[in-house]
Amino acid sequence: MSSKKFFIIGLSGTTNSGKSTLTSMLQSAFPHAFTMCQDSYFYGPDDPRVPLESQGFQNWECLGAMDMEKMVAHVNSWMAKQESNKTPALLIIEGFLIFNHRQLSSLFDQKYFIKVDYSTSAKRRVFRTYVPPDVPGYFESVVWPKYLQNLEDIQDQTQIEYLDGSKSLDDLYNQLVQGIKAVLSGDKKNNS
Fold first, then answer.
1. For the chain, which terminal residue's Cβ has fewer other Cβ atoms within 10 angstroms, N or C?
2. 39 is annotated as an active-site residue
């Protein structure tokens, strides 16, 4: 067993790839794990810090739409509290841009990214409720192009393990549980 005081796992992916659902499922395998969701750090709909696209849409698909300084401060605070641990603590952070924020990305012991294709993501997004709600054309004009741009931005991070989001949630869950257990036991080394 490792002498580390804590481990931090990052779970990212395409919009509507199952990140939140899988994070909830992982709590059954790791009941003492603490979880953090990047969505909790979005600015409000009327906040002028949310960038505007040329079409007039607010761009919720970028780091500028979130208070990332606050998120990193919360992660750092959590890490500081773990220094007196007798057994290692586990933090699972999920969010679609967690690897794009380089300071946050440097803190992960293991990184997972779930990929789904355009049509799967678009079909799933119809069933989600967003605040503010998606305006017509937002997925095609902003969400998917920004996803491709954000994905390109993390290609230099070779330690990200990409998962096939077309697999069942149970298969993805089992793959994640095995991977996280390997990290916790020291069988999987951090490459970041």
1. N
2. yes
